[in-house]
Amino acid sequence: MKKLLFQLDTDPRPSVFDTVVAYDGGADQVIGHGGLTPDTVGALVEGAIFTRAPKDKKNTALFIGGSNMSAGQALLEAIKAKFFGNFRVSVMLDSNGSNTTAAAAVAKMVGSNNIAGKKAVVLAGTGPVGQRAAIMLALEGAAEVIVSSRQLPQAEKVCHDMKLRFGIDLTPAAAADMETRAKLIEGAHIVFATGAAGVELLHEEHWRDSPTLELIADANTTPPLGIGGMDMMDRGILRHGKIAWGALGFGSLKLALQRACVARLFEQNDLILDAEEIFKTAKEMA
Questions:
Q1: Domain 4-93 in this protein, CATH class
Q2: Looking at the chain, which runs of residues are DSSP E strands?
């Protein structure tokens, strides 16, 4: 029986990246649907849960993608609301690669330095990767996790949404320019830049002499990088006495993690792979 993965995307067109990784993760056929909302996904879910016998339902799975994490989370809730009894299939949420990218990065950071009790700052953290990274740092025991945005209301909204979803308090902060961001990281032990591609958030001089900073990471692969003085290939090397992780340094784990999670979807029919479970898998693989 073929392993069918339905790629349910909140953007108009399903991600080519996610399609390729889905095949590499073991799907025999990937069927993409774009522009989905909680109001339009129901019929697709019903088609997935009512067609195969109970013992065969594990061969059908759902993958939620798209660039908007809030939209993806809403889609996941709508999908779960359609499940009952054994009429369910496994689902993975990875809007914009957020869960797998954040999980890979934080797992690598956890493996190279103790995070518990530390102060962390996620720069430009209101995007999908930043949101999930902030939660994973908090789950790993960081004493405080600050989520920055150019506009405070946006940071506040993200922190509120994450509180509702995970029951965890994050600290919102406004940091609209380089000097404000440099001030924000004073006293921090961990800094993770998760901003837009090609946008430098800190110059090297803003972090190299920090007496408290222990761990620095950057999710950007498009020059200029998010943090000046780093290299996208950094794999836990020391830079100015700080452990540095670049996007390609944890990128191989991100790809392997996404493939592994897709493969897990076909092992049983009742998995829900969201931040917590994906992060757990990342730490096992790191």
A1: alpha beta
A2: 4-9, 29-33, 60-65, 90-93, 119-123, 144-149, 171-174, 190-193, 215-218, 235-239, 242-245, 272-273
Angstrom CA distances, 258 to 183, 197, 239, 243, 263, stand at: 35, 21, 29, 25, 9
Query: Nearest Cα to 124, choosing from 137, 114, 133?
Result: 133
The CA distance from 162 to 145, in Å, is 12
pLDDT at residue 10, rounded to an integer: 98
Q: Which parts of the chain have pLDDT scores under 50?
A: none
Number of helices followed by number of strands (H, E) in the chain: 9, 12
Structure tokens at 28: 């025999």
**Dihedral (Cα; 151, 98, 164, 172), 10-degree rounding:** -30
Residue type, 260: A
Q: CA 31, 18, 194: angle at the middle one, nearest 5?
A: 150
Asked if the peptide bond before residue 12 counts as cis, ω within 30 degrees of 0, the response is no
Phi, psi of 78 (to 5 degrees): -65, -35
Whether pTM > 0.90 for this model: the answer is yes
One-letter amino acid of 274: D
Whether 4-93 shares its CATH topology with 98-250 is answered: yes
Q: Domain 98-250's class?
A: alpha beta
Return the bridge partners of 91, or none. Answer: 62, 272
pLDDT tens digits along 121-161: 999 999 999 999 999 999 999 999 999 999 999 999 999 99
Quick one: pLDDT at residue 204?
A: 98
Domain ranges (residues) in the chain: 4-93, 98-250
**Given this model, what pLDDT does residue 26 score?**
98
DSSP states of 112-131 = HS--TT-EEEEETTTSHHHH
